Each structure stands twice: as C-alpha cells, then as structure tokens.
C-alpha cells in the first residue's frame, strides 16, 4: 500500500496532469505489485479530481485519511473506495497471487497471463504495461490523467543486474522511448510526496537561466515518518540527510541521496559542455519522440531496452546513466556527476517535500548501515577515488567531503580500542592515561568535552532534542563496534575473493509486537547475529571492569591513575544499559538471544585471559 500512496501522491501533483508520467519499477517482477498499480490507477480517477477540487495538502490517501481532514459525504465516499481498494490489495498480497475474482477486465487478464509457471523474480521476460495513457484516459471530472507505466525489467540468472542502478538505467531508457521528458523525479517506493507544490519548487532551479546549463539535480532532504519519539536507533540520520547537505550546498552542491531528487535528464549523458551520446539516438536527451506511447514501435523498443543483455558493450553504468560498482549507487552517481562539472542544489522547504519509512529493528538498521559502508569503501578504493580523482576534479573541499563518507568505517578502529583497551588495562590495575595531577590529564578532558560538546551543539541547533542526541551518540558507538567493523571485514574478504555481497533491501515488514516495542523505545535484538557479539562483549567487559576498578579504588589503590579509565567504563556502562536489560532482564521476543549472550560471554572471558597474559607483567 505504500507503493500505492507513493504513486498517487506524485500523480496528484499541482502540475499540468498531461505532462506527468509515472513509471513504477518492479525489480522483483511481482503480480501483486502490478495488481496494486492497476488498483491505484482506477482509484486515481476519483482521487485526482477530489484533491484538486478540495485543494488538499496531503495527496497520499494514506496520509490524508490519517490526518484530521474535513468531513463531507464526498470525503466519506472516497474513503470507502480507498478502504475497499486497500482490502483488495492486502488480500491479494496475503494470497501472493491474483485470483479470478479480482480480475474485472479482459485487459487485466491478458496482462496477468504473462506470469506463467516459469516466471520467477530472478528469471522472467521484461513486462512493460501502459496502465494509463494521458491522451486517452480521463478522470471522473473529465480531466486528462497522467501516463502510468509499469516496468519490470528482464531478469535472468546468468546476467548481472547491478541492483538499483541497473533498475534505474532501465527506467531512464524506457522513459526515453515513451516521452523522453527532460526532468526526472526519482523517488523510492518507501517514500511519498508530502507537498503537491514540490515540482514547482524544483523547476524554479532547474529552469533558472543562471543555473540551468550546469545543474544536474535538485536534492530534497530525506525525512522519515514513524520514527519513535527519541529515535533510539538514530535513524533520522540528521547529518548525512540534512545538515551536511546544507554545508555542501555552499560548495558545488549536495551529494545525491537516492530518493527525493529531481534530475536534469541531460546530466546522464556526459558533462555540462560535452555530450556523451547513448548507443542509439532514440535514447539521447534531446530526441523528440514522435510515436504514441502505446504504439507498436514504441513498445517494441521499450522492451528491447529493458532486456538483460541490452547493456552489453555499451557505456551504461560506466559513462552514461546511473553508475555501477557501488552498493551506494546514489553516492557514487552524484559524485561522478559532480566530478564532470555538474552542480546540484539542496532544496529544504519548511513542509517536508517527501516522507519515508525507516527500519525499526536494530538488526535492519545495522544491515542497512553495513551496506552503505561497503558501498562507500567500494567508491573509496575505485579508480575514481575521491582522495585523488575527486580532489583533482572538484577541489579539496568537495573532494574531502566525499572522502570522509568513503572512509567512514575507519571510526571502528578508535571506537573498538576505546571500548576494550582501557577497560582491560583497568581490570589488570594498569593505568594508561595521565594522572589527575598531571597537565596532560586536562588535554584528555578537553578533547572529550570538546568533541562531545561540538557534536551536541550541532545536533541541537538543527532542532534535535537532548534525548535524540544521546541516542545518536550511543548508536555511533554501536555502529562503530558492529556494522563498521563487519563491513570492513566483508569488504576485505571480497577483495581477496572469499565472498560476494548483494543489495539486501531494507526490511519494511514488522510484526505488531515488534512495532509496539519499538514505539515504547525498547531495543530489538531478537535474532542471533554476529553483529551483536562485539556489542555484548563490550557491555560485559565495561561493566566488570567498572566494578573491579571501583573495588580497587575503594581499597585505596591508585585512584588518580585509574580515574579516566573508570570514567570511560562508567560512561560505556550507562550507554550499554539497554544491552544488559536485553541480556538478563527481558523475556520478550526482542531480548538478546541466549546463543549471542553465551558466545559473547565466552569471548569476553577469552579476551580477558589474553589481555591478562599480555598486561599483567607490566603493572
Ligand atoms: O536490486 C535492487 C535493490 C533495490 N532497489 C530499490 O532501491 C530502493 C531503495 O532500497 P531500500 O531497501 O529502501 O534501501 P534504503 O537503505 O532504505 O535506501 C537508501 O540507500 C540506498 C543506497 O544503498 C539508496 O538507493 C536509497 O535511495 C536510500 O534511501 C527501493 O525502492 C528498492 O525497490 C531496486 O530497485 N533493485
Ligand atoms: Mn528505503
């Protein structure tokens, strides 16, 4: 249903309907998605006139009916219609296929018959269906409607699909064969448009004669609905999705963040002054389409360019279109565009232009972050690495900004050291920081307060709350210990050819219990995963060392020398409270699994034994 909302919210933009074309990319090739699209276009013929007549602010029906909208019999009627559609889509989703009773038209039957027995998500022909044609289809108030095209690219087990950038390149080509509109909005299916004026805002920049010839894209921030009050997993990503983009806007412009972004089609074909034409002229950014979108030649060409082997021996993904080679295709594509001399603009209106979903269980958050970090490393170590190529092409500031993202996981080194080393030393009574009476002591205090103070100020000045900041700094350590570390490990294994990785789509499905716990602000561990092991180990070692240190201090030994280590362990213990709770106090399904608890306890003991061997003699 999120897809239906997404599609309807952009179909209902305050913009001449006949100039809008919506393309849905269904990478999994699912009958259910197609069915949802068919239902969405039927509902659209009522929804679009309803929105324009009442000039509603929420154009996603889900958001509209959840808000306190004005009541009228018309509203009531359309709500019933919406609920009916929802039930139909949800039943089909549950059954996993479209049953006879849901097929009302011959056309639908013909389209759905393409799902033959051999049709699987990994192996199927291209399916491209024009579900609405603006020229022909009219809404109930007799206004024209947008074009609506369902696209599922061809898949086969033997060819490389390049994940999301592969899907986006198919969209670029299919849309070129149909309309070839010069401006493209790219939006993820887990995000809807929250403001019908958004295209006009973007067009102000894209059509501005001062910027036009250099402007590749207008990026809106990524904002999320459904994050719990204190954002326990720090999923808002205030820095990468809001604060940093503002800063980059003062240089050559924000990086591209994958969704909520209006592109100039021309930017996918070479630099601002040198055009790099695609292999067939029909796909070029200046080509004028003269066939109708449902005509045989158009559909034939569309199917051809959506084929698995179409890209063989072309420059798609290396010079043309969205770039391949990184799990964060957005970051890499934006980077390459900016290296070619394209500029971008950050547009951050008061009313969020787009609102999306974010993962709400810890393992999903960590997996998503791990994917991003691997993607960053892929860019950091590629031929076009920002450290050299980037700095050369974009100047030191932009180059370093991109470099900083690529080498994000370096944080795992200091974080891991600070999580274990001082504590293991404390356990062995070894002091590693300066004494309270020494001047160097204050350098440590200054650095700690300086770094945390700066971090805090930046966060709160941008509208964050104190609790959210606290959770943000906790998640920073958690990421450092788990996904940064595992990402670096996985990347290295891949470099030595030991493993491969894929784009694991961020999970959006959760059960009721789980979501209840999330909204109560309770951490979700549940599954047993190696990701949690270093976290639990850190939690155990810090707790034990804090108490052992306390005992030593109470016995009067070396208080001055152990003060900083005690403080560090105490600070970690406060941060790790949810972990202790999950290990011993909780009994719900989201508690730390027994296996993880045992494994981490054993490993913590082993680490302690090893450290004692190495450190004991020195104390
Ligand atoms: O093989 C694939 C994998 C993903 N997608 C689409 O990519 C989008 C983003 O996937 P999602 O699982 O929602 O990823 P997130 O971690 O939420 O995405 C963030 O990070 C991605 C880069 O890893 C960006 O592309 C996204 O825009 C950004 O929101 C979705 O619409 C998917 O349908 C594909 O089309 N084909
Ligand atoms: Mn997403």
TrEMBL record:
The active site is at residues 27, 330. It is a multi-pass membrane protein. GO terms for cellular component: endomembrane system; membrane. InterPro entries: Cellulose_synth (IPR005150), Nucleotide-diphossugar_trans (IPR029044). One of its GO terms (biological process) is cell wall organization. The keyword Repeat does not apply. Mn(2+) binds at residues 164, 188. Keywords: Cell wall biogenesis/degradation, Glycosyltransferase, Membrane, Transferase, Transmembrane, Transmembrane helix. The chain crosses the membrane at residues 372-390, 402-421, 441-461, 481-503, 531-554, 561-580, 592-615. UDP-alpha-D-glucose binds at residue 27. GO terms for molecular function: cellulose synthase (UDP-forming) activity. The keyword Glycosyltransferase applies. It is found in: Endomembrane system. It holds the Pfam family Cellulose_synt. This is Cellulose synthase-like protein G3. It comes from Morella rubra (Chinese bayberry).
């Amino acid at each position: 249903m999120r897809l239906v909302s997404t599609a309807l919210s952009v179909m209902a933009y305050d913009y001449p309907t006949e100039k809008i074309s919506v393309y849905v990319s269904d990478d999994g090739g699912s009958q259910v998605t197609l069915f949802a699209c068919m239902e969405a276009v039927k509902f659209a013929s009522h929804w679009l006139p309803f929105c324009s007549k009442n000039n509603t602010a929420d154009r996603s029906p889900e958001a509209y009916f959840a808000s306190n909208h004005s009541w009228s019999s018309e509203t009531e009627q359309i709500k019933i219609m919406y609920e009916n559609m929802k039930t139909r889509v949800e039943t089909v989703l549950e059954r996993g296929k479209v049953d006879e009773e849901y097929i009302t038209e011959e056309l639908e039957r013909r389209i759905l018959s393409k799902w033959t027995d051999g049709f699987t998500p990994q192996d199927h022909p291209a399916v491209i269906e024009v579900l609405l044609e603006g020229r022909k289809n009219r809404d109930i108030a007799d206004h024209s409607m947008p074009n609506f095209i369902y696209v599922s690219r061809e898949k086969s087990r033997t060819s490389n699909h390049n994940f999301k950038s592969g899907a986006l390149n198919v969209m670029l080509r299919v849309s070129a064969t149909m309309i070839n509109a010069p401006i493209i909005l790219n939006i993820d299916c887990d995000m809807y448009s929250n403001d019908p004026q958004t295209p006009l805002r973007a067009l102000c920049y894209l059509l501005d004669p001062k910027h036009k010839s250099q402007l590749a894209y207008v990026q809106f921030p990524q904002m999320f609905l459904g994050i719990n009050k204190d954002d326990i997993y720090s999923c808002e990503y205030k820095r990468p999705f809001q604060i940093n983009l503002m800063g980059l806007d003062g240089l050559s412009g924000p990086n591209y963040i994958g969704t909520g972004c209006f592109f100039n089609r021309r930017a996918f074909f070479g630099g601002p002054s040198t055009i790099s034409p695609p292999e067939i002229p029909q796909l070029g950014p200046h080509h004028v389409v003269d066939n109708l979108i449902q005509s045989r030649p158009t559909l034939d060409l569309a199917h051809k360019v959506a084929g698995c082997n179409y890209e063989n021996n072309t420059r798609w993904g290396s010079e043309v279109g969205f770039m391949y080679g990184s799990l964060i295709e957005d970051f890499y594509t934006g980077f390459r565009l900016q290296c070619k001399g394209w500029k971008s603009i950050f547009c951050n209106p008061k009313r969020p232009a787009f609102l999306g979903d974010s993962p709400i269980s810890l393992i999903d958050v960590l997996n998503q972050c791990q994917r991003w970090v691997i993607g960053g490393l892929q860019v950091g170590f590629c031929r076009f690495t920002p450290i050299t190529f980037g700095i050369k092409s974009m100047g030191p500031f932009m180059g370093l900004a991109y470099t900083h993202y690529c080498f994000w996981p370096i944080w795992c080194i200091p974080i891991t050291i600070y999580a274990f080393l001082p504590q293991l030393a404390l356990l062995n009574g070894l002091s590693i920081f300066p004494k309270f009476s020494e001047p160097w002591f204050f350098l440590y205090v200054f650095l700690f307060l300086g770094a945390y103070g700066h971090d805090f100020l930046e966060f709160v000045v941008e509208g964050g709350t104190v609790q959210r900041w606290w959770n943000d700094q906790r998640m920073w350590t958690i990421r450092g210990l788990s996904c940064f570390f595992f990402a670096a490990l996985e990347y290295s294994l891949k470099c030595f050819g030991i493993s491969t990785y894929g784009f694991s789509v961020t999970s959006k499905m959760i059960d009721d219990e789980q979501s209840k716990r999330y909204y109560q602000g309770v951490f979700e561990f549940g599954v047993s995963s190696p990701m949690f092991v270093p976290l639990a180990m850190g939690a155990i070692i810090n707790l034990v060392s804090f108490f052992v240190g306390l005992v030593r201090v109470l016995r009067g030994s070396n208080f001055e020398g152990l003060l900083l280590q005690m403080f560090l362990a105490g600070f970690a213990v406060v941060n790790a409270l949810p972990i202790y709770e999950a290990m011993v106090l909780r009994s719900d399904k989201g508690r730390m699994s027994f296996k993880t608890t045992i494994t981490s306890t054993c490993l913590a003991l082993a680490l302690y034994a090893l450290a004692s061997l190495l450190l004991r003699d020195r104390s």
